[in-house]
């Protein structure tokens, strides 16, 4: 009898876990559909504008800067040089910002037992990852097709650069998801701290051209490694020895684990605040 009771208990536990998994997947799917409907939902075209806006912004900035900077630090085409920096940077900026506001955005839905803060986080990460993969594909394909870039794009290297950007963005977003709700002063302060990040991430220039000791200081910015990975995926002659995947993924996973720990401990307090 005890053996039968134990087997029945394990079977029931597996059924409960399976039910929870399906419920979580349904909740994440519903939240993703909600994101699609609410993203530029009032505009004609709806979700298409979510892709068109960043693509248009990146293309416009690329064209403007191409007029003023005809000779890039590497290669012969400024458009592709700038795109290899601005695409992963904008991906980080948008994903981290959207993930950071996950709990606040879905606070009303989190009152239901079927929806958890993890569902809200995963839905936003998945939705914005898909969006920026499409944006980067359109931008890089368009530039490579219509301009003489004289580059040799490596798909696996580009994919690795995007994974680095999204992983780091997700980690920062999860940390800020707690910080924004726990401390009202942190969000405006974070906005101030992020202002010079565009210049400090080597979007406009090469990390190798920065003099010491500033080069050593900038090395600790994970986005420098992301941009470096993206550029060496387009320029065969560019080695980018400073790029450390271990540093980016290690730091990202550490921040992600710490942020999740804080949210697991305090998410109910944050939802009720």
List keywords for this structure.
11 helices, mainly alpha, 273 residues
Characterization of this structure:
The structure is a single chain. The chain has 273 residues and is mainly α. The chain has one domain (2-272). It is built from 11 helices and no strands. The protein has helices spanning 2-38, 48-68, 78-100, 102-105, 117-146, 155-182, 186-194, 197-200, 214-218, 222-232, 245-272. Helix 1 (2-38) crosses helix 5, helix 3 packs across helix 10 (222-232) and helix 6 (155-182) packs parallel to helix 11. The longest helix is centred in the N-terminal third of the chain and has 37 residues, at 2-38. It is globular. 35% of the residues are buried. The mean pLDDT is 83.
Structural category: mainly alpha
Q: Average pLDDT value? A: 83
Low-confidence stretches: none
Distance between the termini: 49 Å
Which overall shape is indicated by the principal axes computed on the Cα atoms?
globular
- How many beta-strand elements? 0
Biggest sheet features: none
| Number of spatially distinct domains | 1
As an assembly, this protein is single chain
* Fraction of residues in H or I helices: over 70%
Rg, Å, rounded: 21 Å
Count helical runs. Answer: 11
């Amino acid at each position: 009898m005890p053996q039968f009771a134990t087997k029945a208990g394990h079977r029931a536990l597996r059924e409960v876990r399976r039910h929870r998994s399906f419920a979580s997947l349904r909740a994440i799917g519903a939240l993703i559909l909600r994101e699609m409907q609410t993203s530029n939902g009032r505009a004609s075209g709806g979700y298409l504008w979510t892709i068109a806006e960043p693509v248009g912004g990146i293309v416009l900035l690329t064209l403007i800067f191409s007029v003023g900077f005809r000779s890039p630090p590497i290669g012969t085409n400024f458009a592709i040089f700038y795109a290899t920096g601005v695409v992963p940077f904008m991906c980080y900026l948008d994903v981290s910002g959207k993930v950071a506001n996950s709990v606040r955005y879905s606070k009303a839905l989190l009152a239901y037992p079927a929806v958890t803060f993890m569902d809200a986080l995963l839905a936003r990460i998945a939705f914005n990852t898909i969006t920026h993969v499409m944006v980067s594909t359109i931008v890089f394909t368009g530039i490579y097709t219509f301009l003489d870039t004289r580059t040799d794009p490596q798909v696996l290297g580009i994919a690795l650069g995007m994974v680095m950007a999204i992983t780091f963005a997700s980690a920062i977003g999860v940390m800020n998801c707690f910080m924004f709700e726990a401390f009202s002063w942190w969000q405006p302060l974070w906005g101030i701290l992020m202002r010079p990040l565009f210049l400090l991430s080597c979007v406009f220039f090469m990390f190798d051209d920065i003099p010491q000791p500033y080069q050593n200081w900038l090395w600790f910015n994970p986005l420098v490694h992301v941009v470096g990975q993206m550029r060496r995926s387009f320029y065969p002659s560019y080695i980018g020895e400073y790029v450390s995947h271990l540093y980016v993924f290690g730091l990202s996973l550490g921040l992600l684990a710490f942020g999740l720990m804080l949210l697991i401990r305090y998410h109910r307090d944050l939802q009720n605040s």
